[in-house]
Structure formats: C-alpha cells, structure tokens
Amino acid sequence: MRKKLRAELGWRRNFFLDKRKLFTGKMNLELKKRIVKCLVWSVATYAAETWTLREADRTKIEAFEMWIWRRLEKISWRDKITNEDVLKKVDEERSLLNKIWQRKHRWIGHVLRQFSARDF
C-alpha cells in the first residue's frame, strides 16, 4: 500500500479520535451518524478525486469505514461481531468507496468540460 494514503488515513483516524467524546457520548445514534457523515467523511475524502486507488487501498478504506462504525457503537475489534452485523446495528451500508467514486466521476467531468471549452 502506498505510504501516502496510509498516512492520510492515519491523519483522518486521529481527527476522529480527537472528537471521541462527541461520538461516544449519550447522543442519539441518528445524530451521531449525521455528524460522522458530515465531519468525518468530508475530512476522509478530502482530495479523494485525485487518488489512484489500488485493491490494497480499497481494502484500507473499507477497513477505515468499519473502524469508524465500530468505534461509534463501542465495539472492540476483538469482539466476535462481523462487519455485516455492525452495519445492521448502525443501520448503514458501506458508502465511503461509493462516495469517492462519485467524486472522481464528477471531477473528471469538470476536467473534460474545461478541455472542451478551450477547443472553441
């Protein structure tokens, strides 16, 4: 795996840990999920449209996403709970890679429009 992406995910993990009290407090689960999607996903996908994702990168991003959901529900990685059970518990689906894919496609459309505007 590329060191740069690993370092970026580590930095994003630290961002989440800095806000740990906010996410592990006695707040409504729906509100926690909205905060995660607003704050953590925006930080996690910063400049994601320029990333070249390999299979190892995708695996790390999926692991990061599951780490977030497990931390949100205070589930240890040592507990014998599958990722699917964790996703059911928080009533979510894996969406981080899909969000990155959407951002990449929007960005390439923007770049292509810039090139076609210059031709005229």
Topology, please?
Blueprint: H1 3-18, H2 20-24, H3 29-44, H4 55-72, H5 83-90, H6 96-119
Helix pairs in contact: 1-4
Q: Your description of this structure?
A:
Helix 1 (3-18) runs parallel beside helix 4 (55-72). The protein has one domain. The chain has 120 residues and is mostly helical. Helix content is 72%, strand content 0%.
Summary keywords:
120 residues; mainly alpha; 6 helices; 0% strand
Summed up:
With 120 residues, the protein is mainly alpha-helical. The protein contains six helices and no strands.
**Helical content class:** over 70%
**Regions with pLDDT < 50 over 5+ consecutive residues?**
none
Return the string of H and E elements.
Answer: HHHHHH
Into which percentage range does the β-strand content fall? under 5%
Number of domains: 1
Please give the number of β-strands. Answer: 0
The biggest beta sheet is recorded as:
none
Total DSSP helices: 6
Report the C-alpha radius of gyration, rounded: 17 Å
Describe the global form: elongated
